[in-house]
Amino acid sequence: MDKPPNSQDQGINVDVGGTPMVDGVEALGSDAGGKGQLRQLFDSAMQNNPYFAAGGGLMLLGTGLALAKSGMVRASRLLYRQMIIDLEIQSRDKSYSWFLSWMARHPQRISKHLSVRTSYLQHDNGSVSTKFSLVPGPGNHWIRYKGAFILIKRERSAKMVDLANGSPFETVTLTTLYRDRHLFTEILNEAKDIALKTNAGKTVIYTSFGPEWRKFGQPKAKRLLPSVILDKGIKEGILDDVHDFMNNGKWYSDRGIPYRRGYLLYGPPGSGKTSFIQALAGELDYNICILNLSENNLTDDRLNHLMNNMPERSILLLEDIDAAFNKRDQTGEQGFHSAVTFSGLLNALDGVTSSEETITFMTTNHPEKLDKAIMRPGRIDYKVFIGNATSYQVEKMFMKFYPGETKLCREFVAAVDNMGATVSTAQLQGLFVMNKDDPMNAIKMVTTMKTNEEFII
């Protein structure tokens, strides 16, 4: 076949794919050609080298598994956030002990980690009652509540300590489905109601423990105010003053007067001072916080902290205040000295950092030993003498123990008047307890109160 016009034979061929060939060899001059050859060499190495091919496969498999694991973790976290809800209760929160008590009573509970809680009570006759309660300890627990399963995890920190009481810091975490989140509120309300019912109709006594207040023993049955017999008008006068104080908070606030009230009950031992305070607390539905100023390691700062952090609806009781300070000096009657200073006591009662909305009762057998500074209004606003039994008190107490014995009552009052010595209400009560159902024998034993300083009940 004839060659095209103007064409020259330069030994160039064209393959089927259109790639320029020089004597049957692919041209390498262009970039595309170089990359193509490198790709062919790499593919050849991958196909002809089994070790390289196997390593690449494992690498691809590992990468795929890692990506799958990461995806599953992310998906599970997303699912957890969408379907699961947690509630954390810290040990410093008041509801912590409420919840543990509620959980210990819950019937549908699976617990393999238990702790023991011991209740110890010594009775007036010397006998002791001890009760052991097994409560959920640190670890995981399951409960079923209203058809829902709840995981409860109680954790105790080995490094963190609650500075308020020195005990290890603890948390309780409740976990359940998001749809059942409303059950948390119901559980806490049930726990609160159970705790409040336990103390209903009773007076809780608190004592200081380090920088905090702790319950002392079991809650006591409220003492009825009529059961304490004081001389005419004393009980009514104090009660009216307390009610007037409690009902006039706004009056104090409007006039810039610190809203607190201090009472001093003074008189001989066994006259009913502490008994009246306990009965008053029951009448007001208040608790009692007893603070011993002679306690070892009690400092001004700790005293101020305790008085500013009392439990709600509580009366502060400072008994035998003369035993802590004789004038401005510590008496040391108990063999040691606290770190509380007289000025620290005055500042806690009526200083810049003193507490508000508090009712403080102080008792003493020797008011003459008290410094005039503590008697100042604002520290002691109401003081009253509670002495030995008067004829009025003797009569009322006899009729309380022996109802209907009016004639014998007159004989008993006359016998006490003719005894030639004063007696305390504690002595009278001791005599009546010894003769529970025998008023005649009580009359015969009147003179024994003259030789015995006080009956122990």
TrEMBL record:
It catalyses: ATP + H2O = ADP + phosphate + H(+). InterPro entries: AAA+_ATPase, AAA_lid_BCS1, ATPase_AAA_core, ATPase_AAA_CS, BCS1_N, Mitochondrial_chaperone_BCS1, P-loop_NTPase. It comes from the Eukaryota. Pfam families: AAA, AAA_lid_BCS1, BCS1_N. The chain crosses the membrane at residues 51-68. Keywords: ATP-binding, Hydrolase, Membrane, Mitochondrion, Mitochondrion inner membrane, Nucleotide-binding, Transmembrane, Transmembrane helix. Residues 259-390 form the AAA+ ATPase domain. It is found in: Mitochondrion inner membrane. Residues 59-228 form the BCS1 N-terminal domain. Its main location: mitochondrion. It is a single-pass membrane protein. Belongs to the AAA ATPase family. BCS1 subfamily. This is Mitochondrial chaperone BCS1. It comes from Nakaseomyces bracarensis.
